């Protein structure tokens, strides 16, 4: 069938719209009519991985309505609302242990540009197009994805608000819920208040964490963080930030989260921990130099995390439940754009004016806040 897709043809080129041929779903796949798709910084980073002239369809925070299901799919029906997430094999030791984000085939299934067997899902006039990005390539009006990638959600959920649960929001919230696990007596410092950092704050608020401190360079983002659950906010540019953080927390944060991937910020986050504190980092950036003496003397832990160490089939429904109960204030951070304005959404993501851009497949942009 034909589908209209936003195609990347190089790191410096804007997205252009093309009509492509979309493969029929195979027995274990489903066809989804995309209604909304979040724009993630991973999309922008991967755009830069392809040389000029290579056509690629990105997008990995898709959400929509199931149109068709493969012959082996028995638990999803046409008309179901689904949120699409990352791909995993479901059979390796890590997947069966409940950690599909660390699937041994993660790279192949999510970033190879094709299905696991190498076959394309998308074809253009010049041949196969790089697709199956995170198993979906949802910068398109229709997407074919494996059943395992799709999470059936409550029919009452607004997919515009929930689309980004498949990656960015899951990453921030999952890192707090599944890895850091702070409690009411904890003191959590969140460095970087983009969509991922805001998700960390929202999740912490749902865990009734005692202190939730949002740290960012932007005045407006710090103000938004207070609306999404932060108990305090600090200016990341303050030369006395470390001293202020330690004073505010009575000696240091018990938990910290970094989404900036900025080496100096990560170093500060680690130094701002109290003894036996834990820092989770989720961004990929330059190498970081940490004070090993500080880590050893304080018994501190610094670890990485992919996709919030979350199993989408169980964690996304939790996020949806919080959203439906007005306990996960996505309207404070979502800004929507018509699909046709994807390049404007990219511009606002890059300059920071949009915290969480979401593309919708009809006309008329909406600012939720």
From TrEMBL:
SMART domains: PKS_ER (SM00829). InterPro entries: ADH-like_C (IPR013149), ADH-like_N (IPR013154), ADH_Zn_CS (IPR002328), ER (IPR020843), GroES-like_sf (IPR011032), NAD(P)-bd_dom_sf (IPR036291). Residues 10-359 form the Enoyl reductase (ER) domain. It holds the Pfam family ADH_N. GO terms for molecular function: oxidoreductase activity; zinc ion binding. It comes from the Bacteria. Keywords: Metal-binding, Oxidoreductase, Zinc. Its cofactor is Zn(2+). Belongs to the zinc-containing alcohol dehydrogenase family. PANTHER family: GROES-LIKE ZINC-BINDING ALCOHOL DEHYDROGENASE FAMILY PROTEIN, NAD-DEPENDENT ALCOHOL DEHYDROGENASE. This is Zinc-containing alcohol dehydrogenase. It comes from Paractinoplanes tereljensis.
């Amino acid at each position: 069938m034909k589908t209209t897709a936003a195609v990347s043809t190089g790191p410096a080129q804007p997205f252009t719209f093309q009509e492509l041929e979309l493969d029929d779903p195979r027995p274990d796949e489903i066809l989804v009519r995309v209604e909304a798709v979040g724009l993630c910084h991973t999309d922008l980073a991967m755009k830069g991985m392809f040389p000029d002239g290579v056509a690629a369809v990105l997008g990995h925070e898709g959400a929509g309505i199931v149109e068709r299901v493969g012959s082996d799919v028995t638990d999803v029906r046409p008309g179901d609302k689904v949120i699409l997430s990352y791909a995993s094999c479901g059979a390796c030791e890590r997947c069966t242990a409940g950690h599909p984000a660390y699937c041994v085939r993660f790279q192949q299934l999510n970033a190879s540009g094709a299905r696991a067997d190498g076959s394309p899902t998308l074809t253009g006039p010049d041949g196969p197009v790089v697709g199956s990005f995170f198993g979906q390539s949802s910068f398109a009006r229709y997407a074919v994805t494996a059943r395992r990638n799709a999470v059936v959600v409550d029919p009452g959920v607004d997919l515009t608000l929930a689309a980004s649960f498949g990656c960015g929001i899951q990453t921030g919230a999952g890192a707090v819920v599944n890895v850091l696990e702070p409690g009411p007596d904890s003191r959590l410092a969140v460095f970087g208040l983009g969509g991922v950092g805001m998700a960390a704050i929202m999740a912490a608020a749902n865990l009734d964490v005692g202190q939730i401190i949002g740290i960012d360079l932007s005045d407006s983002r710090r103000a938004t963080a207070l609306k999404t659950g932060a108990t305090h906010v600090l200016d990341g540019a303050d030369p006395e930030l470390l001293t202020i953080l330690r004073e505010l927390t009575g000696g240091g944060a018990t938990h910290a989260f970094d989404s900036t991937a900025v080496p100096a910020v990560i170093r500060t986050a680690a130094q701002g921990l109290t003894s036996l504190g834990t820092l989770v980092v989720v961004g990929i950036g330059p190498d970081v130099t940490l004070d090993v003496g500080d880590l050893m003397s304080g018994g501190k832990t610094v670890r990485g995390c992919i996709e919030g160490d979350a199993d989408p089939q169980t964690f996304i429904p939790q996020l949806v439940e919080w959203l439906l109960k007005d306990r996960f204030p996505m309207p404070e951070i979502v800004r929507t754009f018509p699909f046709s304005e994807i390049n404007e959404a990219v511009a606002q993501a890059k300059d920071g004016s949009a915290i969480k851009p979401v593309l919708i497949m009809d006309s008329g942009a909406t600012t939720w806040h």
